[in-house]
Amino acid sequence: MTQQSLKPTATAEDAGEGTRVPAGRSWLDQYFHISRRGSGVAREVRGGVTTFMAMAYILLLNPLILSGRDVAGDTLGRQALITATASAAAFTTLLMGFVGRVPLALAAGLSVSGVLSSQVAPQMTWPQAMGMCVLYGVVIMLLVVTGLREMIMNAIPLALKHGITMGIGLFIALIGFYKSGFVHQGRATPVTLGPAGELSGWPVLLFAATLLLIFMLQARNVPGAILIGIVGGTVAAAILNAAGVVDPRQWAGGAAPELHGSAVSMPDFSLFGHIAFGGWGKVGAMTVALIVFTLVLAGFFDAMATIIGVGTEAKLADDQGRMPGLSKALFIDGAGGAIGGVAGGSGQTVFIESATGVGEGARTGLASVVTGLLFAACLFFTPLTAIVPQEVASAALVVIGAMMLMNARHVDWADRATAVPVFLTVVLMPFTYTITAGVAAGVISYTAITAAQGRAREIGAFMWGLTGIFLVYFALHPIEGWLGVR
């Protein structure tokens, strides 16, 4: 993504009621300011379709991440998850198009889904986990409305924000390798290649081939590389399965890549409104607060950077990141957390893949409307997405993880006050299988090392407060024992 000093091209549209609209333009042009931003309807439609193609993989990956069991042993149905993912993406993206009027598309955030699956569900039921999504969405909306987002963004060091993104990327990649069967829990070692130190079966080899194909397509800058890779891997899987080369039982979960019945079906909205806000007493107020905070970290900071980055690419932002409608975009992104929780498909956030549509000429919210309508159309084709084998979808998870790790180029590895906290943040997320542990270690180590360098005044009250909270988080068990809680 090109980062350069640009002057906003859309400031006239925010000049107030006195701004005059030239005669002869259609209502569509006037509402979305298509001509003012130097675009056209055809370019907007093309950009919206391109963005959808680049991020349609979320319909497969989000159900994969949320396929685990909750504390009660219950799971979310795949068909219902696909419907929830598509409906929430459609609604929030349409909202961004019609209200925000910027070329930004939203869908389930993989980092948020990762937190829900690995950290929240093992301690709560799925309805309670979706209730946490609603809470974190409300928190982000309040941060935007009150202006506290600026204070928070300035308080947490930029390098640590990059470290959080990288850690979540490595965490997501681990999930992909594990769910594909490429990595197993070893007998004499914590993890191993395949079930016994070697790859076993055609499905895992198909995962490796799909992964390599996507990387090759990305290296060639092919638009929609992830989606093309998934489609290609699924076709290959269907051929191998139909030819009898692969025993159907070898596919993950025993789900062979074949279509049962019609390719078109009515959407399954059984997860809609399936949320709960009570029953948190078993996990404790501290745990609930830390989970909400982690979800805010996972969804808020990436969205801020993505909105500014895509806005700059679309020549809507200046060199200081000021963009027409920024507050609306941030508010809608926060609302996406609550909307996704109510839909049952995880919190929604702005996708960096929106930049692919901008690259095709998208400059207005009309492109987002097109993307949202395409997601809505997918509600009736869930049987087609259900035939994608887990091994193929897992390859895309690894690719997303690799893309998130590219933030390493922004870290000053020569500065220990930066390098050590980022390192601990990145490695502890996958090593402990807990995103909060990585964030906590990063915050504590940054505060300690910066203070040891005689720069305690640079830390700030907010970071000191976070350090205290995370110290309690790590020492929660002995503290509860000391207080006689356990």
UniProtKB/TrEMBL annotation:
InterPro entries in the cross-refs: Azg-like, NCS2
GO cellular component: endomembrane system; plasma membrane
Alphabetical UniProt keywords: Membrane, Transmembrane, Transmembrane helix, Transport
Protein name: MFS transporter
Species of the source: Streptomyces fuscichromogenes
Subcellular locations according to the entry: Endomembrane system
Phosphoprotein found in the keyword field: no
Ranges where the record places region Disordered: 1-21
Membrane topology classification: Multi-pass membrane protein
Lineage: Bacteria, Bacillati, Actinomycetota, Actinomycetes, Kitasatosporales
Transmembrane feature ranges: 49-68, 80-106, 126-146, 158-179, 199-217, 224-243, 288-310, 330-352, 364-385, 392-410, 422-449, 461-479
Record family assignment: Belongs to the nucleobase:cation symporter-2 (NCS2) (TC 2.A.40) family. Azg-like subfamily.
Molecular-function GO terms, alphabetical: purine nucleobase transmembrane transporter activity
